[in-house]
């Protein structure tokens, strides 16, 4: 699987500095509103009062005691609705990433059909209406003039958790037996459709799994990143390795 050859995802500049100890500084140049957003699409986008936010640093204690609800191919996962303190909570896409990152995890990425089926079963069995994934559209600084990402709605998606490209949206992914993107949505056309841009000029830049919102079963949809949803977190090898290397003797 190809990785996204960019400075980093969602205009994030990650720099590792060493003074007395290593620190990771990740500046997010994004503006995602945090407002209750139950509808799949809002007619008016709420104004954000949080114009610039950081990606959260991992918390070693939280990493060592992170929820391990289920396990798949070397990674632990948890659904926020099953975790005390997070149950019933809905957050925007960036806050979702930050909750996961504090636990040395990130929003879930589904690179294989087997992993995708596992998440679909979780949604079905728990009657979850929707969740965020780490999927993100490369529509920010650094994505300009990239012929390999055009057209963006087909080739411009990637998993922000590991910076691997999502396979083209208009075909069945290699190694899969079906296309996980929905074949319908607000505009009655195949996803991703960037439908909210026609309503309030907000790009649908984040990848969510919706549960039959458009009578289409459980499927992938592009959604504006400010909407609030529960999350599924997955172990981040990058963050786990960082915490292990900077906290001698920690058990993760």
Provide a compact summary of the structure:
Residues 72-234 form the C-type lectin domain. The chain has helices spanning 60-64, 93-102, 113-125, 152-155, 197-200, 237-246, and strands spanning 12-18, 22-28, 53-54, 70-72, 75-79, 105-107, 130-137, 157-159, 164-165, 206-211, 218-223, 232-235. The chain has 252 residues and is an alpha+beta fold.
Task: Tell me what you see in this structure.
It is a single chain. This protein is α+β, with helices and mostly antiparallel strands and 252 residues long. It has helices at 60-64, 93-102, 113-125, 152-155, 197-200, 237-246; strands at 12-18, 22-28, 53-54, 70-72, 75-79, 105-107, 130-137, 157-159, 164-165, 206-211, 218-223, 232-235. It has a single domain (12-246), classed as Mannose-Binding Protein A, Chain A (Roll). The chain has a five-stranded antiparallel β-sheet. Strands 4-5-12-6 form a four-stranded antiparallel β-sheet, sandwiched between helices. β8 (157-159) and β9 (164-165) form a beta hairpin. The longest helix has 13 residues, at 113-125. The model is unreliable at 5-37 (pLDDT under 50).
């Amino acid at each position: 699987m190809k990785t996204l050859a960019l400075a980093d995802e969602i205009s994030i500049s990650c720099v590792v500095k060493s003074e007395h100890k290593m620190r990771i500084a990740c500046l997010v140049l994004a503006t995602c509103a945090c407002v209750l957003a139950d509808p799949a699409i809002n007619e008016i986008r709420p104004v954000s009062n949080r114009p610039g936010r950081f990606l959260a640093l991992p918390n070693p204690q939280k990493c060592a005691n992170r929820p391990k609800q289920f396990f798949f191919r070397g990674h632990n996962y948890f659904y926020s609705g099953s975790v005390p303190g997070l149950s019933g909570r809905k957050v925007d896409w960036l806050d979702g990433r930050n909750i996961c990152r504090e636990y040395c995890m990130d929003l879930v990425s589904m690179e294989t059909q087997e992993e995708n089926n596992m998440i679909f079963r979780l949604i079905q069995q728990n009657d979850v209406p929707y969740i965020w994934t780490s999927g993100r559209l490369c529509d920010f600084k650094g994505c300009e003039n990239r012929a390999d990402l055009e057209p963006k709605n087909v080739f411009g998606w990637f998993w922000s958790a590991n910076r691997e490209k999502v396979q083209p949206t208009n075909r069945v992914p290699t190694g899969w037996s079906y296309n996980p993107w929905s074949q319908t949505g607000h505009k009655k056309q195949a996803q991703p459709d960037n439908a909210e841009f026609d309503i309030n000029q907000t790009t649908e830049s984040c990848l969510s799994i919706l549960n039959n919102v458009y009578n289409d079963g459980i499927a992938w949809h592009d959604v504006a990143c400010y909407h609030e949803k529960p999350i599924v977190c997955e172990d981040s090898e990058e963050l786990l390795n960082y915490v292990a290397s900077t906290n001698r003797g920690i058990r993760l």
